[in-house]
Amino acid sequence: MSVVSRFMANPGKEHWTIVKWVFRYLKGSIDKVLVYGGAKELKEPNIIGYTNADYASDLDKRRSSTGYVFQLWNSTISWKTNLQPVVALSTTGSEYIAMTEAVKESLWLKGLVSELLGNNVKAILKCDSQSAIHLAKNQNHHERTKHIDIRYHFIREILEKKEINLIKVAGNDNAANMFTKAVHMSKLHHCLRLL
User: Fold this and answer.
1) What pLDDT shows up at residue 153?
2) pTM exceeding 0.85
């Protein structure tokens, strides 16, 4: 929908074809719902997030897509997918930008949940890009990353303060995959089971 909505002012025949495909998808997934309260055995209110990016997925402006999703007590509470505001020069750069956006959301969620529950909440962010995780944890600036805007490097300070735990997740187990790229039905069902 995010791609089709960019052409609302002047849609063509191919856009109407995509809209029909979306309606078929909705009809086939009408029984899919979010379920809350299914993890009563979990005592600690940890916020678990997944982040992903699709490098240069926008064919017009060559911008990458960001996608993330967050869970509390194994229930999905927040998700987002959008085009990144800048053009990333590499897959690592696009994953790093997506990770930064997810860190900002996790800090906000952590503060909200901590305030509501009156106790300190842990936030864990899972990413499938080892190079982006390394870039976030490595304080050394080098030739390959000097082009990345400073605003995206605030993630390093957050990790240094241990406000968020950043860990690697296998690409197949990254629930945010379905937000950034077209996935096969079996992969979509797997992502839905994760959520």
Assistant:
1) 76
2) no
